Amino acid sequence: MRTAITANTLAAVLLLLTSNVVAQNQPLAFEVASVKPVNTPAPLGGQRGLNGVRGGVFDVQNHRFTAIRVNLYALIKWSYGITASSCMFSECDFLIGGPDWVRSDAFDVQAIMPDDSPVYTFAQMLNGQAPALQAMLQNLLADRFKLVLHREMKTMPVYILTIGQGGPKLTPSKEEETSAVNVSGNPAAQGSDRVLNGRKASMEQFARLLGLPSVADRPVLDRTGLTGRFTFEVKFAPVDNNAFGNTSSPSLFTALREQLGLRLEATEAPLEILVIDHAEKPDAN
Questions:
Q1: Judging by DSSP bridges, how do beta strands 148-163 and 95-97 pair with one another?
Q2: Confidence at 82, pLDDT banded by 50, 70, 90
Q3: Residues 279, 99: contact at Cβ < 8 Å?
Q4: Residues near 112 by Cβ (< 8 Å), separated by ≥ 6?
Q5: What are phi and psi of 71, to 5 degrees?
Q6: Contact, 133 vs 65, CB < 8 A?
Q7: What pLDDT digit, counting tens, does each position of 122-136 carry?
Q8: Which residues pair with 69 in a beta bridge?
Q9: Are 104 and 25 in contact (CB under 8 A)?
Q10: Structure pTM?
Q11: Sheet of 194-201: strands edge to edge?
């Protein structure tokens, strides 16, 4: 026996399906966001810490993003994950163009993510590893600043990650391990040492880790040809060690060669950069 489908029932089903598709295609957006111009010049970059009177600071806690006296240039870098060392707190080759006020005018930004959003740490945001939060910030900048960007390629200094002369010294990960990569330090016990930790990590993930601001001084491209997943711990002295004290640990280059059988080679390669095509000053809200 067939069940008749009325026009009203069919319309309701189509409306439900359409609503689901629209919901799935909705751009990620903050629950609430405030952008206010500040009548003092802003530094180029930004750093963590919301206590005190220093400007150019931002923080990420739970579902809240807060930036105090920052410029649009810094907001773009954070939202698009521009994390090269040379780009940390200054202008760099990975983001160019735009009017002068993009680098000089200051703004206070406070935004709250929806409750069902991922919870990110400050370090994840700083290292470009907070995709949902970054997407919300990108959409906020497009909405409030009318920001328009385009991407193009430019030849830049890089490191190429390859296998050393004696072959790799990598430990294959166990199936039950959870994938994770991070860089840490223990100043109290290790002076200025850094430690790279990885579990069930691909070489592509490892190369991205090496290219973080606190590790190498330029982006790193994986050219090892290794397709497995590995567990590792690499201890080394940072490239800026002379500014922070002495350590008995080897340099990053030596540590990779001795501990993992890998090699970093300095060269140049075409990389993607962002170009600011258009931006407008937002109204206070």
A1: unpaired
A2: confident
A3: yes
A4: 30, 31, 32, 33, 63, 64, 65
A5: -95, 170
A6: yes
A7: 878 877 779 999 999
A8: none
A9: no
A10: 0.70
A11: 171-172, 230-236, 194-201, 180-184
Confidence check: pLDDT of 22 > 60? no
245 pLDDT above the threshold of 60: no
CA proximity to 129, closest of 59, 208, 29, 203: 208
The string of pLDDT tens digits covering residues 186-215 is: 444 445 688 899 999 999 989 988 987 678
